[in-house]
Amino acid sequence: MRTGGTTGVLLLNLGSPARPTAFALMPYLREFLMDPAVIDLPYWRRFLLVHGLILPFRSFRSARAYRRIWTKEGSPLIAITFRVRRELEKKLGMPVAVGMRYGHPRTREALEQLRDAGVEKIAVLPQYPQFASASYETAVQHLFRNAGMFSREDMRVLPPFFEEPRYLDCLANSLRDVLAPEDALLLSFHGVPERHLRKADPTGAYCLSSRECCRRVPQEVLARCYRAQCYRTAEEVARRLGREIADDPAEGKVSLGFQSRLGNDRWTRPYTDELLLKAGEMDIANLKVACPSFTADCLETLEEIGMEGRRIFEEAGGGRFALIPSLNDRPEWVELLAAYARELLEWG
Fold first, then answer.
1. Average pLDDT over residues 272-283
2. Hey, which end of the chain has fewer CB within 10 Å, N or C?
3. CB 241 within 8 A of CB 179
4. With a threshold of 0.90, does the pTM exceed it?
5. Domains of the chain (ranges, CATH numbers)
């Protein structure tokens, strides 16, 4: 590995508004939703949809949601990511910067910090376990577009790690720590429109061709299929926990759903909110929910699942509900990120 201050690390994540106000949400949501990787419509249609229908209403709703989770440190996602940064710097003894795809700190600002620290080679750690065009791919492409003083050869990017054994061990350990044998475990992944899956399918015909398509997926499809990668993560975690996968939440088993859908298009299914409603109606006594497409807690985990998901479940008649924290700054996870960085930096 190169030493002497020439190597550094860049943590990449989605982003967060600067404040939990509609005024601060406007530019953040505009940048996010105008990304063609997120809303893949022709520019004029995307512009009219975002500026005419979404921003005037969603900015206020999102601001209310953010206020429910805001802390003295600010946005949970930003605060957690900077805690991880501090721990990584201690372990690695090299500069670590934080860059967000949307909002601040911007990716370009993070690269400038690394340049000013004398860094020449960068290990890039996108905090997205699974590949999706609207998360991992847009973040990495945005990084390359804004690399400025760095060439692509100066950066080694961690690939999606949805089935990397050490990550799966770490995730399973974080769940095992809080699970009781009688608990039903629901793994809630962020959803994407089904058309994104079909666009990413290199065969043009495999994705969503059958109910079991994600469980018997060819390797060439798995490499770019977000839904199949979520199923692979869930199956491997269930195996490590000694549990079976079930279609619906059930005592001692693992089920999976997809959250955060937007608009009227068909998104990846089954839907988490429908599974939470069904779990409540089935009188599930103990339900625990984890969100493995996020490595740090954020609006989607803390408010959408931890608050609104709890409400759906309890109002439907469910028993005890608990949101399992994301990996956040768990020591085992920070140690694994340090290992990923070291491995990426072991070149010429």
1. 97
2. C
3. yes
4. yes
5. 7-161+330-344 (3.40.50.1400), 179-323 (3.40.50.1400)
